[in-house]
Amino acid sequence: MDLVPALEEPLKKVLGPATAKVMAEHLGLHTVGDLLHHYPRRYEERGQLTHLADLPMDEHVTVVAMVADARLHTFASSKAPRGKGQRLEVTITDGSGRLQLVFFGHGVHKPHKELLPGTRAMFAGKVSVFNRRLQLAHPAYELLRGDAEETVETWAGALIPIYPATAKLESWKIGKAIQTVLPSAQEALDPLPDTLREGRGLVPLPEALLKIHRPHTKADIADARSRLKWDEAFVLQVALARRRHADAQLPAVARKPKPDGLLTSFDDRLPFTLTEGQQKVSKEIFDDLATEHPMHRLLQGEVGSGKTMVALRAMLAVVDAGGQAAMLAPTEVLAQQHHRSVVEMMGELAEGGMLGGADQGTKVVLLTGSMGAAARRQALLDLVTGEAGIVIGTHALIEDKVRFHDLGLVVVDEQHRFGVEQRDALRGKGKQPPHLLVMTATPIPRTVAMTVFGDLETSVLDQLPAGRSPIASHVVPAADKPHFLARAWERVREEVGKGHQAYVVCPRIGDEEEDPKKKKSPEDEAEKRPPLAVLDMADQLAKGPLQGLGVEVLHGRMHPDDKDAVMRRFAAGETHVLVATTVIEVGVNVPNATAMVIMDADRFGVSQLHQLRGRVGRGSAPGLCLLVTEMPEASPARQRLNAVAATLDGFELSRIDLEQRREGDVLGQAQSGARTSLRMLAVIEDEEIIAEARDEAAAVVAADPELTALPGLRTALDALLDEEREQYLEKG
Q1: How far is CA 599 from CA 102, 302, 479, in A?
Q2: How confident is the model over 222-281, as pLDDT tens digits?
Q3: For residues 578, 580, 583 and 587, what is the CA-based torsion angle, rounded to 10 degrees?
Q4: CA distances (Å), 671 to each of 378, 508, 553, 602, in order?
């Protein structure tokens, strides 16, 4: 019988089914190897206390602190009408700050006995705000008793590892599980080639795993970290290098525009000259299109830098060369918008084969999931006969029924919303792999581009077209200064008075079904109001501060025809104020809209706020963006909003975003379906390691593309990729 290698042993055999189930469901850990690679987030020294002063909102935290004070209160509530409700409030301190813990109902008895002033313990729970103060409601805790006690000893000498945990599994329980599997670390296969490891003075992998989970000194932690960072950077870069290597072997049809063709006619009609940046990037793209293997290029540009113009010229060049071009947009609103603006920019050139169309024109068709059957049939027919040179659509373009005459170029807009499978499915529609241009308006720092889009060449558009106005951004602290919010609505009225329009953005729609299974305690109700909703907000504004103005709503669950009608009325200036969800985040272009009010702005990410703000100031009048929040002055959420208000530089903001979020989000965890492979590597701080690992990886793959001489590296790659994840690296 084959013995399962120690690191592939399923956790349920080692830890029992109950613990293994929680680890699989909540942390994505299935094998002994997975658990060994679940590294501590940080370490506590038993003699030292965490900083309560800088706790992150809405995250699970583990803190070591001392009880300063504990009080039991009684109160009346619907469940205990006669004043029999009990609430225990415990204040803990660590010298840097204080934090309140609350326990309710029957949950008060045990902590009331155990959490006496002077007691030291580890507390784990989710940080929330109540009465504008940070608190943990019903935290789990483990008392730290004298050294004689076994609990403290099992937490490894003087440094206690604090693991990323969940409500179902506290850090100390994860620590105990890791102690159980730690002996298996000896059998870990080393992915780094010996020459690389020795050349860089890195410790062997088994030693690194031991030191990261049971460090005796801070030097142990540093040794382990630098080794494990190298593993991650190197294995990832090898995967990307292999992908680039494989792509370079693919054949493609070179597409060179005709000297006096469609592209020339289009350029002659342009009422303005292209910016230097647009010309430079266009040249890079045309050079790629002229080669016989597929272009893989990432075009990143600031909001409003004219990426669509660059992409359209690339599509026209391919049509000139006898091919077809497809542009994939993430939402119907956006696909319709792109279709409208492309047809407008092209004029009669978009009416190929029709009366009044230009001689060398082509047909531009739209294809979305909600089109009527007849329109859809005609669009499919135009594609298969080659009548339509350009098609713009949502992922309806990827369906099996869609056939192309000769697909030469695929343009993907807002890349981070597309899964890799989708990109590949569309690429499979060409007789040979088509060229690929990926666009994003989320500026990406260089190292992230190397890590996430490492298989793509990168072009950057950082100039704004002439005539664009700057956007002034301000934070509106609605809780501290309610009169600021009143003033915000006055500003909206003023803009409308000048003949302009405004957006109001809310985090949710407001017609969501309440989940009956989710019971909310009265504490929850008081503690956290749900995010503001479009439908409620539109109603309040129309009856209140914006009474008399034309207010309409737009959100993702509306029927596509209704969405389109709302957008058309807004674009035509018939609606003064559009109350919307983030469906307007990307690509919506209404030059007359000059003001945007973002409600509950703290509920959006930095890059998302930057994207949203890019929807105003698109004409010649200056733009105004107001970020409304109820978060207290000192909270990290407020600092994030202040950063957005302080700069219009997307690259600067994307660095801030990265430093504040965990890389997992940035590396597209949401759409990979799998956990991020980066646990130790910080994309911003470890710029040098990533760049060096990229060079080493390229050399290894060039010398041995199949990695025949490096079985350890092959195993690590398989673990990272599971085949389908090699695709995931392509990063939809």
Answers
A1: 29, 23, 12
A2: 999 999 999 888 988 898 888 888 888 888 899 998 888 899 999 998 888 888 889 999
A3: 30
A4: 33, 20, 28, 23
Q: What is the pLDDT of residues 336-358, one digit of tens each?
A: 888 988 998 898 888 765 545 55
CB of 36 within 8 A of CB of 180? no
H or E, element range at 725: helix 724-729
Half-sphere exposure at residue 580, Cβ-oriented, CA atoms within 13 angstroms: 22
pTM of the model: 0.64
Could you tell me the strand order of the sheet in which 407-413 lies?
Answer: 363-367, 388-393, 324-328, 407-413, 435-440, 296-301, 457-461
- For residue 632, the 8-state DSSP code is -
Query: DSSP assignment of 269-300, as one string?
Result: H-SSPPPHHHHHHHHHHHHHHTSSS--EEEEE
Strand partners of residue 699: none
Half-sphere exposure of 562 (CA within 13 A, CB side): 8
346 backbone dihedrals φ, ψ, rounded to 5° = -85, -25
Query: What is the DSSP secondary structure assignment for residue 556, as one 8-state letter?
Result: T
Encoding tokens for residue 336?
């319709």
* 678, amino acid identity: L
- Rounded-to-integer distance, Cα 306 and Cα 133, Å: 45
Alpha-carbon gap, residue 323 to 279, rounded angstroms: 22
* Closest-CA residue to 502 (of 574, 576, 611, 585): 576
Q: How far is CA 426 from its chain centroid?
A: 23
Integer CA distances (angstroms), 630 to 353, 485, 492, 624, 641, in order:
57, 11, 20, 20, 12
In single-letter form, the type of residue at position 614 comes to G
Distant-in-sequence, close-in-space partners of 92: CB < 8 Å, separation ≥ 6: 52, 63, 65, 66, 67, 68, 98, 99, 101, 123
Cα angle at 165 between 713 and 117, to 5 degrees? 145
